[in-house]
Here is the input.
Amino acid sequence: VVDGLPVQVVHPSLTLTLPVVDLRHLPEAEREAEALRVVTEKARVLFDLSAVPLLRPTLVHFNDEEHRLFLTLHHIIFDGVAIYQVFLPELRTLYEAFSTGQPSPLPELPIQYGDYAQWQRERLQGDVFAEQLAYLKQQLADAPTTLELPTDHPRPPVQTHRGSMRPFGLSRRLTDELKAMSRQEGVTLYMTLVAAFKTLLYRYTEQEDMLVGTATAGRKHSEMLGMMGFFLNTLVLRTDLSGNPTFRALQQRVREVILEALAHQDIPFEYLVKELQPERNLGQNPLFQALITLEPPLPVLPSGWTLTQMDVRVGTSKFDLYLELDDRPEGLIGRFMYNTDLFDASTIERITGHWQTLLEAIVRDPNQHIADLPLLTEQEQEQLLVRWNATNTAFPENKPVHQIFEEQAQRRPGAVALVFDEQTMTYGELNRRANQLAHRLRRLGVGEGAETRVGLCMDRSLEMVVGLLGILKAGGAYVPLDPSYPRERLAFMLQDTQAPVLLTQSKLLDLLPGDEDAIILDNQLANALRAGSLSSLSTDCVLPTVRQAERKSAAHSGKLQGSNRVPTF
Here is the structure.
């Protein structure tokens, strides 16, 4: 650190130790789990950037025929290309040479990482850089910088980077079909996967304009191909999903976006953020919160060598949602890495299922519009369409509905019975208010002798349900009056049904004639009831009315529109 800033130090050499963990003493069935525990423990140890080395190898001795080399690497010295296309091929070359007593056959590098860093700094001052920056600023102008994914938990004010991962694998058959479809459409597999990922996010967010991150190798010159180091740059992909395009059409939109992004890939992401100056939020990544990458292809390894990426869970996540994919001989494998402050594991499990269902639908028919592509797995369809709809219940025929409600209110008085906007009402509270209203209706003659019809002209609200139950408890029959009807129609219905009492809301009084006794049950009255400040109702008895409606009594009186514009029964 110089003047408070980190600087690079090039060491002429380093001593690298290779710890060996011998698991042969364990039962064979326990060795895999123990190896995962050991490497996970090592992966969670933080690197000291002021000391070398910034990689930790561990050799695990499984049996006399099998050794596994585990590598924990810091991203500052490696990227995916360096691992798959430089380190592993060179490791193979050196292993083969040293195992036969030969010296290293690796050639001297024409340039070093420091040369690349110098070239990048010089390029940042040139005209090409200025042109690329101007293009990106125009491309990302007024872009939404927040992906509105529905989350299980509210976003914390400051990112903790706590995370987890959910691995999955796609079949060889599905992988081959995705590749074949991509070739047919003139796009790469990566472009198809990006289009599918954006479709998935669109279905969750309904955002037609979204930013998603990705990564580019950054090795534009042949001299860089054989170099170790971190060359990756993060690109921002802005895609227009408006108009509900077919997936095939979206593939072409994504293709153009990716090609333009690659043509302007020299601007470091941190520099772009500095220039754009988006509204910063310590609780989320700037510009985008979802990322997708496709790792480089695997190198050709000698016979007897296999390469496996273990599901080591270090408990961190840089983004809300990160989809990392690898194309392997057995098919695409992937990992959803996610922010555990936002998402539960069960949610990511469902997202993984939706992702695979979506890909199957895409290869089956890419001409489907993105809003119509299926997401639900077979298990979810079974749950939604069958199990959750198996709601048939045998109610007693000798009890009216309000009596069944009263029994439920006695069993669970504190349970929530109604939810409307931000308001809630428990069974006990709903029963008390309905009883208060029923007693008042009884004093007005409802339920005495012949069945009495009571008008009910209200918008959807908690009070509307209070009104329904109150009428039934008083022994009346409610007449539903739609507030959207013309005033003349409402007046005719009240006159024709001879409803002497009307329940309504204060905002609807101007729509109604004034001949009936009107009881106002609007929200203002409900608030007064909660506070106990309205004497006209708060002093009414909250016990059930004595008279119960007969089992065959009318509970509802309705009207149908006649062809002569006069309402008829």
The longest strand covers residues 55-63. Residues 528-540, 546-552, 559-569 have pLDDT under 50 and may be disordered.
